[in-house]
Amino acid sequence: MTPVLQFTDKGIYCPGGDFYIDPWQPVPRAVITHAHSDHARLGNQHYLCHLESVPLLQLRLGADISVQGIAYGETLRYNGVSISLHPAGHIIGSAQVRVQQGNEVWVVSGDYKVENDGLSGQFEPVPCQVFITESTFGLPIYNWQPQAMIFSDIRKWIYENQQAGKSSVLLAYSLGKAQRLLFNLKDLDTPIFAHGAIDVPHQVLLAQGYDLPAIQRITPDTPKADLKKSVIIAPPSAAGTPWMRRFNPYALGICSGWMQVRGSMRRRNADAGFALSDHADWSGLLQSVKATGAEKVFTTHGFSSAFARYLQENGIEAEAIKTAFGNEDEEAPQEAGTATAAVDPTPDNGTAAAPAAGESE
Asked: Is the CATH code 3.40.50.10890 the one for domain 147-274?
């Protein structure tokens, strides 16, 4: 019997419905889990995604793309195959894709996290026979503190920097992580400035009505005096560039799950590291797999081989699959390789994604 979904050189393909999920080569019909560029690529003839992802796809791929948005839980049918989208909690508009053919259900997770960040929604386990899961942080060393604790640490760090006469520069990926920071720091009694790569999606989301704070975009005309003791949010690609000089004196903080590994902060010449990730940690991955009740699990991008092996050793049929997905939203995949120096094995897809358009400002 032909499986409901197949892994091909173009992406995850549904033969019965004749569509692909997050394809990495151009195809006629693409179902997109979220708007990060390793999952949503240019060149497809038609896109299907969650309603909240539509403006983000148009921002990143062009306003003239053919795109349809549907709500969570809404069902479409293609040639007898049912498709529905379900909350992934990764970033705004992120979704898991449920595909049903006959009595068989497969779910593609995309990227996800299980803690509700207050902005991206609550991850929803979807019962299925086969679950295709990310495994970006699929090693036991990756276990996140509650978000409230992390943001308490960030606020304390900002205050200490101000007392020392320094600005606080936080590096966070421009789509997802930056909005999470802004949403959870909106009560700060401190001006917040942002790199243009942060401001562009911010303005799109403000226009959609999201409860995000006002920020000031940094331009060549921004007075240096205005930046003193302020908070600046910038993409990781800004680190070490001449653009940063205007903030002196400043302290540099990196917001990434890779900061969980001892030494990551030092290797990246940062003053502080905050293990704030938009991906599930080890316990979140295990919790999610168990909640689906899946009989078979395919693991993709990240520590997929290690995670699949652990599932196998614990009585769950599992297989690691090579894909073209990466860790674009973490912007530090090289740290995964660093982490394995002590714990092995290496991640399966550790190539660095290119910065999104506008991040070179």
From this structure: yes
